[in-house]
Amino acid sequence: MSLDTPLRLGVAGLGTVGAGVLKIVRRHGDLLAARAGRPVEVVAVSARSRGKDRGVPIDAFAWEDDPVALARRDDIDVFVELMGGTDGPAKAATEAAIAAGKDVVTANKAMLAIHGQALAEAAEAGGRVLRFEAGVAGGIPVVKALTEGLAGNEISRVMGVMNGTCNYILTRMESGHLNYQEVFSEAEKLGYLEADPTLDVGGIDAAHKLTLLASIAFGTRIDFSAVVIEGIERITIEDIEQAADMGYRIKLLGVAEMTGRGLETRMTPCLVPMTSPLGQLENATNMVVLEGDAVGQVVLRGAGAGEGPTASAVMSDIVDIARGTRVATFGRPAAALVAAKAARTTTPAPYYLRLELKDRPGALAKVAAVLGEAGISIDRMRQYGHEDTAAPVLIVTHRTGRDAVDAALAALPATAVVLAEPVAIRIENV
Ligand code: NAP
Ligand code: HSE
Question: Is 133 near ligand 2, meaning CB less than 6 Å away?
Answer without folding.
Answer: no
